[in-house]
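U., I forgot to send this yesterday:
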Amino acid sequence: MSNLSVTTRIFQELSKNSDSIIPIAVKDTLSNCAITYIYDKKASKEDGKERAIEEFGTEVLWIGGIPLVKKLFNSTVYKFFKADPNFDIRNLQKGASGNLDRLEFLAKNAKDAIQKQKLEDILKNKNLQKLYKKLHFTRFIVATASTLAGLSGLIIYKQKTTEKQLEEKYKNKIKLEHAINSNIKDQEAFSAFTGAKKDVPFGNSITKFLSGYMFNPVNNMKILDAGITTTRITQGRKGEKFEIGFKEIFQIIFIYKLATPIGKGLEKLSEALFKKPISTEFLLLNNKKLLELIQAPELKDAIKTLTSKEGDEILKYIYNNDNALTQMLKISEIIPTIKGSNGVIDSFAHIEPDDIKHGAKEILKLLEATADKADKSKFLKQVRNFKAGAIIANVLIGAAAIGILQPMLNIILRKKKNGGQTANPAFKNIEQQMEQKFAFKG
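Result:
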């Protein structure tokens, strides 16, 4: 609705564990720094370098690959067909209750003239509706598949780089030994050694997707993770496959499975112990208009009215009411608005009635907690600060588990399995293969 500070936007995105890649990116960056440092200091230099190449290289493609490809697709393919990439094809479906023609409703009620005209064109043209569906599905497949291919290639490159380093290290060692112990004149035989494993095709193709994967960037990332995990394990060298699987389990648990539950747990803890309801969106808690809106006389009745409705009736309500509640929901971005429009609803976006109803209930919690406070401004600032603290805590918990606990446990297990050795057991196996390959005949 208005220009947001960088800090506000960062905290808001970090709080969205179920549908934003920002928390994943921050946790991954922090954990990658810790993983690289721990393996470099506690295991071996080769181990640390491998981790740096794979973890940070993978992160660039993992986090940025899909958005970049989609952006390129939007600026080329969508542009070629004169289609708007911001139109959400879920608006072509029936409404939440099945009775409302969502597209017809939006075309009739859109407040923005440009959007209204485009929605009317889409409504009248069945072929245009089919085009939007095809473009969306194609963009999803191209972005996911190309990014996965790049990630798989990087994993293979990382292993070949390590093998080449170990090969050069071992060749130099053997050359020195042979120069001292024998009168060898020709050492060209060593240059014939390549040390390369047979190329293996990129990660397994994934052909069946649930529709939720196309509309949720976090779910889309899960597809990449499935491909990465498959590639890492199939490409894993002798002695390291267990470690790969162990690390991937931590990644899945603390990036996907526990991020939202931890966030919910911190919210309940704040409410139970400190009487601070922090489930409301950070965007709203940090907005200058919050104090005015929370004291609006019509707010409680508006919440009661909206939460008594279901499905499509909620959609009709937000289009026909510009009160304190809908303004708060717009500030929270639960009701999407056109950028720079001062609160005009974005009719191209998909609006989920259940999310709006849930957001109204969370605002009610904040309203009730604030009602008896003499200094409402001070209390709301405290709630905002508790919310920021919970967001940071959630990120740090995940990053610490993946970046510190996981590698330390892996190294402890290495010691137990490999007679106290902390270096990657795969490196030892490679060196043994080289000893056989470079065995001196003389």
